[in-house]
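Review form for a predicted model. The reviewer records the input and the model, then writes brief findings.
Reviewer: anonymous (R2)
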Amino acid sequence: MREAYLEKRSMRLLIGPNGAPVRTSVALEPEFWEQLEACAKRAGQSMPAWIADVDKLRRDTHPNQSLASACRVQVLAETMAAGRAR
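Model under review:
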């Protein structure tokens, strides 16, 4: 098993009032970044747009969950769904 480490990325998400950009950072393992990028591509979105959608869902349903955790859970759910669709 290889040693896990987090890769932190900063971005602007259009989640503020009236779609105003909000600067945030997310720290994920490289494998999750790779799968997150694939999820965004399948959805036809940029990575920040996909993360903004995950963030909105997180704030509406699980406001105490971290954004990094919400991204991991969504990546896992979408990756599993894509595998079942084959």
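Findings: The chain has one domain: 7-84.
Further findings: Residues 55 and 74 are 10 Å apart (CA to CA).
Recommendation: see findings above.
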